[in-house]
Amino acid sequence: MSFAKTETFSEMAMASLFFPRNLGKLHSFLFFCSFLLCLSVTATDTLLPGQDISGNKTLISPNQVFELGFFKTGGSSSANYYLGIWFRDDPYQKSIWVANREYPIPDSSGVLAIRYDGNLVINDRRLIPVLVNPVMLANSNGTHATLLDSGNFVLVDGESNSVVWESFFYPSDTLLPGMRLGWFNLGTDKLRDQFLVSWQTPSVPSTGSFALGLNKNNRTELRVWHTEVSREIGYWDGRRFKFLYNSSLDDYNFSYVNSIDEIYFTFANRRNDSISWFVLTPLGEIQAFTMIGKEISMVYSPICENISSSSATNCFIEQPLSCGNGNNFSKIEGAMLNPTVFNESDHLGISDCEMMCRTNCSCTGFASYRDDGTGCVFYYEDISSIVDHIGRGNATIFIRGNATKTADQDPRRSGSGKKRLLWVIGIIPVVILLIFVAMFISRGKCSTWLVAAWKENRTSTNRSLELFLQQLGSARGSSNSTSRLDSFRKRDHELPILSFSCVTTSTNNFSPANKLGEGGFGPVYKGTLLGHEFAVKRLSRKSGQGIEEFKNEVQLISKLQHRNLVKLLGCCIEREEKILIYEYMANKSLDSFLFDPNKKQLLDLRKRVSIIEGIAQGLLYLHKYSRLRIIHRDLKTSNILLDDDMNPKISDFGMARIFGENEVRGRTNKVVGTYGYMSPEYAVHGLFSTMSDVFSFGVIMLEIVSGRRNTTFSSLDHSLNLLGYAWELWCSSCGIELIDPLLADTSSVSKLLLCLHIALLCVQERPENRPSMSDIVTALSNEHADLPPPKKPAFSAHIDFCNSLHQQDCSTNDVSYSVLEAR
After folding, report:
1. DSSP single-letter state for residue 374
2. What's the pLDDT tens digit per position in 150-174?
3. Domain check: are 546 and 643 in the same one?
4. Could you tell me the pTM of the whole model?
5. How far is residue 298's CA from residue 288's CA, in Å, rounded to a whole number?
6. Residue 435 dihedral angles phi and psi, to the nearest 5°
7. Total structural domains within the chain
8. Chain mean position to CA 134
9. Pick the catalytic residue: 634, 652, 740, 775?
10. Which domain range does residue 22 map to?
11. Residue 634 designated active-site
């Protein structure tokens, strides 16, 4: 080996001073060093406030295992961009986690950043922010996000160094080592179900048709759901996981955890020189992948053959043709043994237990542990050990095979034959009676119609009830097969129509104890069905709202799907009743907090700003992004409901109207709504448009910022209402005096002044001067925007106060923001 051409950096630099021919070599060397320096600077694993991920910028985990950034799908004319995580050495860069599956970006303008409140937000040129961590929000703005070598993307609170949110909580279609599938926060109102959902196609990460997770009714089972059909693929037998697939399980260490607050399935890799993971494909198949070094290979896993469990310890037969001891079960009475597997579900009867045990040859017996015959226990011991306990107790146990002879030969069971004989003697007269009744009914001319109508009504009722339960599950995070997919997909549902008896049962016959409140439309009650809670709005016969308003709300809101719109779950139109059933909002309406001296203390700055932004997003969806362009016409704080996490949801669409694409405004001779929130052109002339809702939104913003109600506000000095008072303070550069005293000590007054400025723009008298909801959403996300000065609000008193300052526009406040073009 020759070292003759080796030169140090200092030698090259010196040589360049005396030998110009070396200058080009030095320039090349310096360029190479600067390139390496840039790589070392940009290759980071952490996103800090003020930084962003956009274009080709990415995060790379410490050991360069995973990479996070934006990726593109589709061709040039149909391209979409998503934020995802992929193996850095994967040549195809197939994402194992996608943040915005339902919110693709139409171009390369996507930007991931940490917002002013410490939360992760994706923005693009449309300036419609998408929260990456909407359910688990940060409590402070001192956060940072890090991509770990496990593939987990975590948002960390810098002060407490605690994890606020992590991508492992919301997996996509890939199960990585350390990920968990199951149920968390059991026994609380924040129950979380973690499961996989397939891609729509191999190249489109939108949610597909298959889901993989633990079965709610038997949380020892792993199942794959396809709409309403599911298939068991594995179960925990108390000692190990057994799978339908005969894969090489030596590479995995499967675990099952069952505690008071969580039940989940997870796995780890046994080998240190490789990484293995599972993917739920768009066709519902489960593929296993392994990466050794930089080589990725798919592991083929054939379905287990129809053999006994003794010769395939990690396999089970999903639908065995015939087990060694047969597929029939014998009923015996004896002592209840300690079960191998325990299932607490209230929805499982003894027939369900038999079906579950029958489809698994490893199951040797089952029983129900409750007096009402619900709940299952399963045995995997030898049948002989169960038979030994015959006659030692009063429990009823079913064992695989024919154990009748054994039971009859036991002297302690000598009375069992007499019991069966008495049962047969008692049942025969009942059967004969039923036959005579059926023959009598069949002779009637209308009997066929009655039976058919009864069957049709029963089928329709059952179908509506089933659909309603699916809606409930989707709204409250249930794990039934349909809701798991519906929670990821926006699509229309047939609205369930429930019977009046079902509604009265769920509300305890409209008990006053279940009453949540009452408005001009009528009372609202809390209903409960199979553990699910919902709200029942019963339209009063004295209400000004009639059948048209009722039909209007049913037709409109049932077609809308947005996180800031209340979800309609069903209705009832029986016995001249007009009843609407909504998802249950634990914190009721915004006004119940905002104007209550005790509760309003719970609305700090962050929550108030979040509520304003949520209402704005809901209105933007109604005005621009829903398939039906909708004007609400009755927007007020009592129609803004708050869920468990204080997220706002717009409700009460009885007064709403649909606009066509080319319609700008409408007119009505019947002005409906609430004074104090109605725009002047609507209240006086019956003219309504999207700007009518903007006006109402501006009033709500003023109420949220000030903590005062517009309709009951009074000022001895100047103004008739809150709008006029806010205007006077703004003109005198004293806008800060309008802010709720509870927020006076906050360090982020500029955000509240921004909201005040936007609110005054919204309540301007002329509709054409008001900003659109798109402009408002943009301004709310840009604290340093330069907004135009507002003109006088509608319905404000003593407007000469500003005229005395020789100005029509008041713009003397210290805070200024970006220009909005009003429409």
Report:
1. -
2. 999 999 998 888 999 999 999 999 9
3. no
4. 0.45
5. 6
6. -65, -45
7. 5
8. 9
9. 634
10. 9-39
11. yes
